[in-house]
Design goal:
Bound molecules: NADP nicotinamide-adenine-dinucleotide phosphate
Order of helices and strands: EEEHHEEEEHHEHEHEEHEHEHEHE
Radius of gyration: 20 Å
Number of domains: 2
Distance between the termini: 13 Å
Helix content: 25-40%
Structural class: alpha/beta
Largest sheet: 7 strands, mixed
Oligomer: single chain
CATH superfamily of the largest domain: Medium-chain alcohol dehydrogenases, catalytic domain
Length: 321
């Protein structure tokens, strides 16, 4: 089968398209013919190994698993002998940030992992953009224990995580202020944001509004800035480690010192959450944003765009002919 492979860490050019053996379906697994996969910041992070800690999972000196791609949609082509909840021909979508492997024509996954049947009214493209950004958004919203009626600010509301966060927060009943560039204000409003701010014109830390939760979905701010607009008891979460990794140790210190807290939750993906996200898409309550679609042969260009930090929502890779 054709796959995008990488055998060393580095820039997008370390990835190339090659013929590799298709994976073999285990007794408790399903084999999926991939239709679409996303090329996202999780894949890019593992590819570059910019944060050395990722090598603890992907291989200390070189990648253990040469095929990236953690988010996918496709068709089940084989079912392991112990699998009872999938059938050949099922349309499925899933998230697999331990096995990866969806930047390929075929991938296997344990039937018990986060993989579900695509709702009947959702197409393969949308299904392939349903699970990565929204997974991080959902985990962080849960960690902050956002309640109905709370005031929340999402910084970087146009990324895969930010655009999902705005919609999920509205679903959970929060009042949402979304911060993005002027060109994206209308888009973010259309996702349901109550208030939109252009970060080039307005410094959100200098406004009079106060928030229960500030979620920096692109990791461009700091706890020091967010504290200025957090209510007592308020929570700040960023998707990045922060300057000198401050978001890791401040997650511990702010637990005991001060009235405002920084959290750094570890995201966990479950089948139940995947199903919830698919149901929200099916019901029209969550619209995953698709920026553009690349052919498998253009994987390097796809990574270059993802690495630019300028994508709006999700970038997809088309595996089907
Ligand atoms: N911890 C993890 O495992 C993990 C996993 C995935 C992602 N991440 C991190 O999470 C972050 C978000 O990922 P993502 O895929 O959602 O991001 P993304 O899609 O790459 O975000 C791109 C968006 O960021 C916005 N942006 C760029 N610079 C900005 C700035 N200075 N201020 C505000 N917005 C800015 C841009 O919108 P505008 O044009 O409107 O500025 C663009 O639409 C990344 O930093 C990524 O590394 C972490």
């Amino acid at each position: 089968m054709k796959a995008a492979v990488y055998y060393k860490y580095g820039k997008p050019e370390v990835v190339s398209v090659a013929d590799v053996p298709a994976p073999i379906c285990g007794n408790n697994e399903i084999l999926i013919q991939i239709k679409y996969a996303s090329v996202n910041r999780t894949d890019a992070g593992f590819r570059s190994a910019e944060y050395v800690i990722s090598r603890l999972f992907s291989g200390l000196f070189k990648p253990k698993n040469p095929v990236l791609g953690c988010e996918f949609s496709g068709i089940v082509t084989q079912v392991g002998s112990e699998v009872t909840d999938f059938n050949v021909g099922d349309r499925v979508y899933g998230f697999d940030d331990s096995g990866f492997g969806s930047h390929a024509e075929y991938k296997t996954i344990k039937a018990s992992e986060p993989v579900c049947v695509i709702p009947h009214n959702v197409d393969f493209e949308i299904a392939a953009a349903t699970t990565e950004g929204s997974h991080y958004a959902l985990c962080n919203i849960r960690a902050a224990k956002v309640q109905k009626g709370q005031n929340v600010l999402v910084y970087g509301a146009t990324g895969a995580i930010g655009s999902a966060a705005v919609q999920l927060l509205k679903h959970f009943g929060a009042t949402v202020t979304a911060v993005c560039r002027k060109e994206h204000l209308e888009l973010v409003k259309s996702l349901g944001a109550d208030v939109v701010l252009d970060y080039q014109a307005t410094d959100y830390t200098q406004t009079t509004e106060r928030y229960h939760f500030v979620f920096d979905a692109v990791g461009k701010s700091s706890f020091g800035q967010a504290k200025l607009v957090l209510l007592d008891g308020g929570i700040y979460i960023s998707t990045e480690l922060g300057k000198n990794g401050e978001n890791v140790y401040k997650a511990i210190t702010t637990k005991f010192i001060g009235k405002k807290r920084l959290m750094f939750p570890l995201p966990i993906s479950t089948k139940e959450d995947l199903k919830l996200l698919g149901d929200l898409v099916s019901e029209g309550k969550f619209k995953p944003q698709i920026d553009c679609v690349y052919a498998l042969n253009d994987i390097v260009e796809a990574y270059k765009y993802v690495d630019s930090g300028q994508k709006v929502g999700n970038v997809l890779l088309r595996l089907e002919d």
